[in-house]
């Protein structure tokens, strides 16, 4: 028992009363968009494995091969002796695919956002406090990075670039470097930013554009390498992950050579973290070989999402502006989301309830994430199960 256990229990009791307590529930992957939980095999519509690469033979083989050749761990941080030749090879391949001068690997998307933003907002670098304009629905890691830097966020309405431009114009005479921090695909609503318009706006106002591509990498854009390419070279930094559509683990930053070299010298999340191990690098390398060849899978994924949105709309279910492989079913109250999730699990479907604080109060939902591993029959099963279980209130 710890000194604070009574306080911990009080907090957990409050979460129970609000229907927002979370628990860890172990699962076992069954392949092809399925998992095993509680002794039952369920169709998994809650995973970020958008292209079904997590169990792809090439990723598994290369992860094992690089482990056998290079060992289980990198043994140190990147700046000590943890930078293997493999790190440099993967970063060079990634930069070529992203069309940037350089790329830099990080241990997770959260780590990248939480560590890179404070490095960019450094007053010693900029000479004054940064003016940071952020989308209200940005991922928690982006908000955390801003908080860690001690900057005040100037938040614009979700995907409202007119509002963003108004805010930028209002501060035109103020000192400080402008930053626009947003996502290309928003993980809870499944909608996307207008990257060409964002890039043009950033250019007009002399703002540094930071684009989180976690849920676009592998799925959208030329060769599946995200939407930053649509910015015409005006996206200053693109962050993305290998842990979603690319099937493995880790994250990256892509941009100029000077940017990446600066982060090597200033970003604590890279300087003080043990480097990614060979197995993870092998899976990354294999995914980068595969993703550019998967245009047919990407097209099918988007077609499935269109069908699912149409089915939900026919049932009167709001989908929050989704235009990607992420299709939320908005239930409103937390208890409604939990009830729908339970009813679907009874029908063999895993659809996890997403509740505050992950989403704003009153917008609890089931976040359905489609995968190229799902068959047409799987999609039909999902649509039928939701139609049977849906009980609007």
Automatic annotation (TrEMBL):
Oligomeric form and interacting partners: Homodimer.
Gene: bioF
Organism field: Azospirillum argentinense
GO MF annotations in UniProt: 8-amino-7-oxononanoate synthase activity
InterPro entries: Aminotrans_II_pyridoxalP_BS, Aminotransferase_I/II_large, AON_synthase_class-II, AONS_Archaea/Proteobacteria, PyrdxlP-dep_Trfase, PyrdxlP-dep_Trfase_major, PyrdxlP-dep_Trfase_small
Keywords: Acyltransferase, Biotin biosynthesis, Pyridoxal phosphate, Transferase
Enzyme Commission no: 2.3.1.47
One family name in Pfam for this protein: Aminotran_1_2
Catalytic activity: 6-carboxyhexanoyl-[ACP] + L-alanine + H(+) = (8S)-8-amino-7-oxononanoate + holo-[ACP] + CO2
Biochemical pathway: Cofactor biosynthesis; biotin biosynthesis
Function noted in UniProt: Catalyzes the decarboxylative condensation of pimeloyl-[acyl-carrier protein] and L-alanine to produce 8-amino-7-oxononanoate (AON), [acyl-carrier protein], and carbon dioxide.
Protein name: 8-amino-7-ketopelargonate synthase
Superkingdom, taxonomy of origin: Bacteria
């Amino acid at each position: 028992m710890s000194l604070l256990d009574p306080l911990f229990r009080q907090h957990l009791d409050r979460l129970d009363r609000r229907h927002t307590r979370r628990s860890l529930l172990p699962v076992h992957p069954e392949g092809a968009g399925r998992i095993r939980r509680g002794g039952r095999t369920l169709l998994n519509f809650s995973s970020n494995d958008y292209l079904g690469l997590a169990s792809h033979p090439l990723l598994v083989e290369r992860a094992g091969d690089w482990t056998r050749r290079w060992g289980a761990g990198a043994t140190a941080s990147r700046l000590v002796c943890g930078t293997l030749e493999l790190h440099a090879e993967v970063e060079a391949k990634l930069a070529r695919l992203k069309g940037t001068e350089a790329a830099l690997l990080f241990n997770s998307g959260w780590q990248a956002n939480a560590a890179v933003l404070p490095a960019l907002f450094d007053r010693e670098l900029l000479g004054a406090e940064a003016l940071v304009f952020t989308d209200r629905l940005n991922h928690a890691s982006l908000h955390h990075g801003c908080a860690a830097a001690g900057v005040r966020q100037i938040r614009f309405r979700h995907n409202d670039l007119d509002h963003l431009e108004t805010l930028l114009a209002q501060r035109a005479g103020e000192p400080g470097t402008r930053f626009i921090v947003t996502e290309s695909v928003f993980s809870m609503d499944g909608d996307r930013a207008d990257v060409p318009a964002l890039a043009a706006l950033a250019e007009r106002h002399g703002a540094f554009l930071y684009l989180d591509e976690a849920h676009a990498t592998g799925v959208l854009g030329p060769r599946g390498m995200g939407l930053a390419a649509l910015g015409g070279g005006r996206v200053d930094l693109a962050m993305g992950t290998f842990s979603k559509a690319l099937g493995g683990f880790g994250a990256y930053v892509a941009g100029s050579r000077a940017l990446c070299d600066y982060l090597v010298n200033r970003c604590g999340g890279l300087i003080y973290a043990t480097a990614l191990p060979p197995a993870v690098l092998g899976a990354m390398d294999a995914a980068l070989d595969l993703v550019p060849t998967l245009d047919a899978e990407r097209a099918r994924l988007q077609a499935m999402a269109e069908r699912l949105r149409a089915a939900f709309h026919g049932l009167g279910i709001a989908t929050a502006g989704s235009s990607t492989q992420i299709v939320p079913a908005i239930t409103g109250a937390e208890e409604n989301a939990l009830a729908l999730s339970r009813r679907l699990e009874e029908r063999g479907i895993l659809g996890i309830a997403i509740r505050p604080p992950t989403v704003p109060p009153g917008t609890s939902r089931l976040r359905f994430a489609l995968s190229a591993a799902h068959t047409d029959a799987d999609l039909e099963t999902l649509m039928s199960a939701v139609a049977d279980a849906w009980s609007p209130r």
